[in-house]
Amino acid sequence: MASKEIWLEKYRPRTLDEVQGNEDALIKLRTIAEEGNVPNMILVGPPGIGKTSSVLCLARTLLADVFDSCALEMNASDERGIDVVREKIKSFAQKKVNLKPGLHKIIILDEADSLTEGAQQALRMIISDFADTTRFVLSCNDSSKLIDAIQSRCAILRFTKLTDEQILRRLEEIVEKENIKIDKGGKEALLFTCEGDMRQAINNLQATYTAFKLVNKENVLKVCDVPNVEVLQQVIAECVNGNFHAAQKKLYPLWEEGYTAYDLVNNLYKLIQTQDMDKQLQYEFMREMAFLKMKVLEGLPTFLQISGYLAKISSIANSKK
Ligand SMILES: Nc1ncnc2c1ncn2[C@@H]1O[C@H](COP(=O)(O)OP(=O)(O)OP(=O)(O)O)[C@@H](O)[C@H]1O
Ligand SMILES: [Mg+2]
C-alpha cells in the first residue's frame, strides 16, 4: 500500500536536478558529473538537507549501470565498529572492477565526523593508497572534527539549511503525488517545526498524514509534540507589553505539561524571530535569548532560567515605553 512506503526513500532525489537548494554546491557537483573526475570531497552541513542524496545522484549519473558494484555507501558511526568499516572500505577499494577510463569507484562515508582520530588516520592512508582507482566522499555535520590531513586531501563543499520555499516546493510535489489533504496552516506548521531540515519536513508530513489523514496546523503540532504555539505567542506578547508576571503565568502550564526548557526556549526563539513587533525590541529579545540558550545548553535547563529571561525582556520592553 502506498501509504506504508517511507516517503523519505520514495522521494529521495534520483538526479541532481531534483535536489533542492544549495545551488553553489550543486553547480560544482553538476560540473563534476559532466567531467567525470570526482575529487575526494567533504560535504559539510546540518542534517537532512541533501548531502548524501546529492552524492548518490552524482555517483548514479557517473557510474550508471555499474553503480551497484562501483559505489559503496556506508555510515561511519555504524554499530558494527570502525574495524569492520575499515576492512570493508579497504576491501572495496582493493576490489578490481572494469570501469571506463577516467572513472573511479566511489566510497560515500556518512557521518565521517564520528570517526575516532585513529580511524581517520587509517582512512587517510587508504585515501592516498587508492587514489588511482577510488574516490572518497565524506559527509559530516562538523568538519572541524576531521583531522587536517584528511581535510587537506579533500575539496570541501558546504551545504546550508534549506529555505522555506525550497522545502515547500518538495513538500508540494509529494502532497500532489500522494493526494494529501493539507491546508495553509498545515504547511506553515511543517515549515515551523522542520527548521530547514527536509528530512524532518517529509517525515512530519508522512507521520501527520498517517495519524490523522488531514494535515492541518493542529495535527502537525500534535505529531511533532510542539508546545502550544498560541500560548507561546501570548507569552511573547505579554513580554512586549512589559507584563512579566502574566507572561510567566501563561508559560508555566507548558512546563507542567512536561515540555523541557530546551523545547520552550527553542520554540520561543523561533517565534520571536517571526513575531510582528518593534525591530529594536525584537533585536533585544533575541540578544537576551542567546544568553538564555547558552545557560540552558550549559546545564541550567530550569524554569527559573526561563523566568529570568522573561523578566529581563519585560523590563527592557518597559524601559522603552
Ligand atoms: N535538498 C533536498 N532536496 C530534496 N530532497 C531532500 C533534500 N534534502 C533532503 N531531502 C530528503 O531528505 C532525505 C534525507 O536527505 P539526506 O540523506 O541527503 O540528508 P543529509 O544531508 O545527508 O543528512 P545527514 O547529515 O543526516 O546525513 C532524503 O531521502 C530526501 O528524501
Ligand atoms: Mg547523510
TrEMBL record:
Homology family: Belongs to the activator 1 small subunits family.
Ranges of residues in domain AAA+ ATPase: 37-168
GO biological process, one term: DNA-templated DNA replication
InterPro entries: AAA+_ATPase, ATPase_AAA_core, DNA_pol3_clamp-load_cplx_C, DNA_Rep/Repair_Clamp_Loader, P-loop_NTPase, Rep_factorC_C, RFC_lid
Molecular function as annotated in GO: ATP binding; ATP hydrolysis activity; DNA binding; DNA clamp loader activity
Name of the protein described by the UniProt record: Replication factor C, activator 1
Keywords per UniProt: ATP-binding, DNA replication, Nucleotide-binding
GO CC terms in record: DNA replication factor C complex; nucleus
SUPFAM superfamilies, alphabetized: P-loop containing nucleoside triphosphate hydrolases, post-AAA+ oligomerization domain-like
